[in-house]
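#struct-pred
JK: can someone run the complex with NAI? inputs below
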Amino acid sequence: MTRIVLFENIHPSAKEVFVAAGFNDVVTHASALSPDELNDALRGASLVGIRSRTHLDAALLADAPDLRAVGCFCIGTNQVDLDAAMLRGVPVFNAPFSNTRSVAELVLGEAILLLRRIPEKNARVHQGYWDKTAEGAFEARGKTLGIIGYGNIGSQVGTLAEAAGMRVLFHDIEAKLPLGNVRASAALKRLLGQSDVVTLHVPGGKATKNIMDAVTIAAMKPGAILINASRGSVVDIDALHAALLSGHLSGAALDVFPVEPKSVNEPLVSPLIGMQNVILTPHIGGSTQESQENIGREVAEKLVRYILSGTTKGAVNFPEIPYQEVAGTGRILHVHRNLPGAMGTLSNLMAEHGLNIVSQQLQTRGQIGYVISDVEGNVNDTVMSALRTHPITVRCDLV
Ligand code: NAI
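RT: done, structure tokens with the ligand placed:
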């Protein structure tokens, strides 16, 4: 029986996928559990679904010998000891694309609101002023949007912005196929000098830290708008603050911050608080009902595909083997230490037990190798036990 345990109120779309695939033993928990409770809950679980608050460290993974795969029903996977999971033959999956559209829609919406100075106008009406001036208010149509980082989100933003009549430029460190009429800008400075709205969609990390600092912000068009819904580290907030105060930039929208509050009661600390031409949101770019539902489905489908066919496409810590139809009378999933001769050993073990290999796929990653073997013959307990107990074996399962 494949027991599936889901923590942290994962969207019901996940359970629907499991049940539709014939996995009915699904236990759900509304929240994250304490380490002791988690330890108990993991016992006997074949598949586990978590979000960001459940930490699966090496000790917990070692104490869950039945665990075959982990689904992170979110983008990040830092909460799992990925190497420890890999060394136990446990692939970890996540949902890198499920909230792409949600972020892209927010960015386009903010660009339009800021071009029209709606945040300030909204605040003025709330304060009792009926100021109907058109000064400083512009249509999005015909304006230029500059996208820094033309990956999943950046390219979606470009598509939406073109539909609203904007000219779109992008700058990326990799060569990317432009969608629609979007144009690549090899030089960041050129993009900054041409764009009425600049939006950032790069990863975090050292290479992108403060991409927007005093120098690059100064290179933006006077009166331009800056939007950041990527990572808090990519914009120098003091430099942005100074550019907004001086009027060099007319507005900004930030969904991410260098230091973000850890709970609902902890306030954000930022010099931008109180500025009426700045939209501040609490890192909710990807948080919509649709994205939660998509995440539930996307990760559950990856887990089901792994259990039913051994496919590890999209695993973040594991050799990736794409889907192939099952051939032969049985499919054996074998994870081994990545050492010379491992394949020979595996093939010999199968031959010794009368199994003929119909097809075999191998991928290695770091210290482990992963082989999917479709075989003809009687895949009984004796052969599975021989495979499982061999010194090269990390883990071995039958589909
Ligand atoms: P992605 O990996 O698909 O795209 C990132 C792009 O940035 C790639 O094309 C890459 O080549 C490019 N890039 C990397 N370094 C660059 C540099 N120095 N200059 C120019 N381009 C560079 O990532 P995706 O899915 O589009 O996510 C983008 C960002 O959005 C990430 O930082 C992610 O963490 C963040 N994000 C924020 C959310 C929110 O709620 N606000 C939700 C989801 C993602």
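RT: quick notes.
The chain has 13 helices and 16 strands.
The CA atoms of residues 32 and 49 lie 11 Å apart.
JK: thanks, will look after standup
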